[in-house]
Every structure is written in C-alpha cells, then in structure tokens.
Amino acid sequence: MERFPDQRRRIIDLFNNNEDFRTLCEDYWQSKQALLNSMSNKIEDTLLENEYSVLCLELEKEALRFIGFADHY
Question: What are the extents of the domains in the chain?
C-alpha cells in the first residue's frame, strides 16, 4: 500500500477476499523482512541479498497483476 496508496481500497479488498493475494502479500512481506535483516546485519553475502531483492520484485509484479496494473510495470 505504500507504493500505491491510491489503490488502498482495492488492496484491502483483495487481501480480505482472495486467499492467493493474501498469500502473495505474506510471501512478499517475509521476503522484504529477510532482505532488510540481511542489510541491517551487514551480512557480506551479496548473492543472498540480490536473491531476496529479485524475489521481492517478482512478488511485487505478481501483486500488481492482482491489482490490475500489470500493463503499467
């Protein structure tokens, strides 16, 4: 919702009513947390950091398809 505040209502509706979207959001949140933790812990494993970054982008793109913005990103 931070990136697309104007779609807040649609995101909430999907999260509350679509199990696939909810799972996608949970996966994204976990990946984002793992990425932030790896960065804040100063882990030198840039490969792992890159993998989490790519995963977050892929999950975000999938979420955009649910929201209806697939053609824009």
Answer: 5-65
Q: In which residue are the tokens 């882990």 written?
A: 43
The alpha carbon of 15 is separated from its chain's Cα centroid by a whole number of angstroms, namely 13
- State pTM to two decimals: 0.67
Write the DSSP string, the chain: --S-GGGHHHHHHHHHH-HHHHHHHHHHHHHHHHHHHHHHTT---HHHHHHHHHHHHHHHHHHHHHHT-TTT-
pLDDT tens-digit profile of 5-22?
A: 899 999 999 999 999 999
CA distance 20 to 61: 14
